Hints:
The chain is mostly beta strands. The protein has 2 domains: 2-68, no CATH class; 73-113. It is 10% helix and 40% strand. The protein contains 2 helices and 9 strands, in the order βαβββββββαβ. It has helices at residues 6-10, 95-100; strands at 2-3, 15-17, 24-28, 38-42, 45-49, 66-68, 73-80, 85-92, 107-113. The longest helix is centred in the C-terminal third of the chain and has 6 residues, at 95-100.
Amino acid sequence: MKPFNLEKALAGEPVVTRDGRKINDLHFFHTLTRDCKLYGVINNSINAWTHEGKWLSTGVEQPEDLFMAEPEKWINVYYSEEREQAWCGGVYEYEKEAKENSKKANYQTTIKLKP
């Protein structure tokens, strides 16, 4: 996982928890006088973090600690019955883009690559 970066997160880059949940509506409150000035939403619940992305300032790893999300990558899979061979074509950042470029005759499916 990529380490949390407050500047990038506040600029809109995707953020996830240590256990992979997506963070929405991330805001940093500069004038708060407490350790946890960063607030965001996980599954319709508001949570708070330190500016380092730590869920609690205890120093113990938590499932809610923040990380920068790895970018998604998608590929198209093709299969030739004649050759009895499968192959992949193209690497795309978006599933929609991959499917739009999957018009070859032997197209089978589009799959998401794991980071």
